Amino acid sequence: MKTLTRISNAIMEKYLPDPYIFVTILTVLTLLLGVALTDASPLDMVTYWGGSFWSLLEFTMQMVIVLAAGHILANSPVFKKGLAAIASKIKTTGMAIIIVTFVSLIACWINWGFGLVIGALFAKEIARHVKKVDYRLLIASAYSGFVIWHGGLAGSIPLSIATEGHKFADIMGIIPTNITLFSTYNLFIVIVIVFTLPFFNRWMMPKEEDSVEVDPTLLVEEKTKLPKPENNFASRSERSYILTILIAIIGLVFLVHHFMTKGFVLDLNVINTIFIVLGIIFHGTPQRFLAAAQDAIKTTTGIVFQFPFYAGIMGMMTASGLAAVFSEWFVNISNEHTFYLFTFYSAGLVNFFIPSGGGQWAVQAPIMLDAATTLGADYAKTAMAIAWGDAWTNMIQPFWALPALAIAGLKARDIMGFCLFILIFTGIIISIGFLFF
């Protein structure tokens, strides 16, 4: 395995381009495939691209806040001391890889946005305490937990089909989570990944002479220079704890009310609210909070300027019917025994072009549910096969790695050599779950 990962890392470092280059190549490829495989003309594809380019603005902003607010929280004195205390208990490189993978898996099972940020922040803190750990593998391990998210509590597809009046309710009805998220096959997949992936990642550890330690400059924390206090209202208000207390009360009351009335519902907006409120509290004064925010926003550039391109790709895939073409390829080679497996594979392929669970479900559901009706397949399991396919190929799709990479200070090529084998390993487990359960 060490030899294989060394070869894989060498290939990725040499040939995998920056995520922005990747998304531009993917844009051109989608356009050409749309013209070749559908009735769309080149002008049609360009029109679909432009018409959808700004369709993910809300989601883009949510992701910017996830990353920035996570940074703000992590740079607060209380949070830094907490992470440091936990990380200081880890003494060996192998244990570092195992623990960070396990923490990331559990956090992503609870909520993917929470897991992406916490996993990367925890990994970076571990790098400060554990010497000679391969930093690339450490961050890849932190990101690997994301593979489990769509089988967890915040899975967008299973939660969507459990909601009254969802888009496909006339076909499949309301599907409760006890037969999706808590089904035998889903629990098998989740439990096996949670208890084996940490050790698989540990198995990939390079030899000591091949390990790439963290660049010390990535761990250096620049001390924020605050302006000297002045004896006037503006300066006093910026350093006031009273304003922090008032905003904290408002935020905490809202969150308590939310959980009391809606249950343990963690969507991106709730996660962001938690991060921001805790960031305000832990930094103490508005001045310190705003200084941390100014530093944090620098890490969001990749998200701001790449997400619109994926929105354009999604528009081309959907409007041209290209996503349907891909799905039908797999349906045509399926039977009643292999249908869920090939649904999973087709979703993995489509996910490269539509890296959005909700968007992918909207595109693939009509084809797959129609095929399920013809084959007499279970609608709930069909939906979960799409959900797992959407999560699975995220391991080699740089789009979702951007938050973790921004926190870590790495490039996609640094971790994708390891992520390729994580993809293969988890793909085997997920395939077994859909084929034999």
UniProtKB/TrEMBL annotation:
The keyword Glycosyltransferase does not apply. The chain crosses the membrane at residues 20-41, 53-74, 94-123, 135-159, 179-200, 241-260, 266-286, 307-331, 337-354, 415-436. InterPro entries: SCFA_transpt_AtoE. The keyword Membrane applies. Pfam families: SCFA_trans. Keywords: Membrane, Transmembrane, Transmembrane helix. PANTHER family: SHORT-CHAIN FATTY ACID TRANSPORTER-RELATED. This is Short-chain fatty acid transporter. It comes from Lysinibacillus zambalensis.
